[in-house]
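Dear colleagues,

As part of the handover before I leave the project, I'm documenting each prediction I ran so the next person doesn't have to rerun anything. This entry is a single chain, and its sequence is reproduced below.
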Amino acid sequence: MSAPSYMQFLPPAALAKLGRCELLARGVVEGFVSGKHKSPFKGFSVEFSEHRQYAPGDDLRNLDWRVLARKDRYYIKQYIEETNLRATLLLDASGSMAYAGDAAARLDGKPASKFLYAQHIAAMLGYLLVGQQDAAGLVTFDTRLRSYLPARARASQVRAILEMLEKTVPGGETGLADIFHDIAERVPRRGLVVILSDLYDDPAALIKALHHFRFRRHEVLLFHIVAEEELTFPFDTFTKFRDLEAPESLLPIDPRTIRATYLERMRGFLADIESACGRMKIDYVRMNTRVPYDEALAAYLATRG
C-alpha cells in the first residue's frame, strides 16, 4: 500500500537527518501539561527560581533548612514549573513564494520554489513539535487568512498539518502586516510563533507587525525564505519579468541597467529586517533555497540547541 501523497513533505532521508532534533523554547511560554519549557507560573517543580518568606499554611517540605540554620529565618524554596510549548506556524502563500530559480535545491525532481521549500520546513517542524509532545498549529495566508489550524498536541495533528500544506497553492498578493496583527490577537497564549515568508511587504509596517507578537509576549522565529537569484540578480540579457502576484503583468527590462540599484535596495531591505529582529530579540534565519532545506534546518536547530 502506497503512502499518502502528503507524506512527500516528510521524506525518509530528511526524517533520518532531523528526526531526533528538538525545537525548544528559549523564552517563557504558557502551556497546559508538564513538559520541557519554562512556564511563567511558579510552583514546586525541578528548577530552582528564588526564595520567599514562609507564610502560615505553606508546606514545610519546601522549607529551606540551610537558610534557617544560617539566618534563623523561615524561607520557602520556589521553582519554575515546566510546561509544553504551543507553537503556531505561519506560512506565506502569496504569489511571490511560487518563484523557483534555477539555482534552487531540487525537490520532487525539480528546482524548489520558495513555497515548496517552506512547505517542507513547516511539515518537519510540525512533526518535531508534536513528536516532543508539544502543540503545533498552522496558518496559511496571502492578503487574507486562508486557513487556520489551532495548535494541538495530539498525534493526528501531524496529518492535519500535512493535509493543509498539500491543499495550499501559492497565489495572490502579499499583505503580511495586517495578517500578523490579526494572528497576534488570535493566538491565545504566549508561545512560539514561526514565520515562513519571503517578507515582501513594506518594511516599516512589517516591523511594526512583528513587534505586535513581541508585545503579546510570544517568542518569534522568522525563517526568511529567499532564492539565490533574488540575492545576486544574475540576469544579463534583455528579459521579460513577470509579477507573480499579478501574473498578467509583464515588464521588459535590460537587467544590466538596474542591477546595481536592485542589489543596493535588496541589501538595505535585508539589513533593515535583520537589524529590527535583533532589537526585538526575534530569531532571524535567512534560508536560501540553494541549500537543501534539511541541511539548513539541521544546522539551525543544532545552533539553537
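The CA atoms of residues 97 and 115 lie 5 Å apart. The chain has a mean pLDDT of 85.

All the best with the project,
I.
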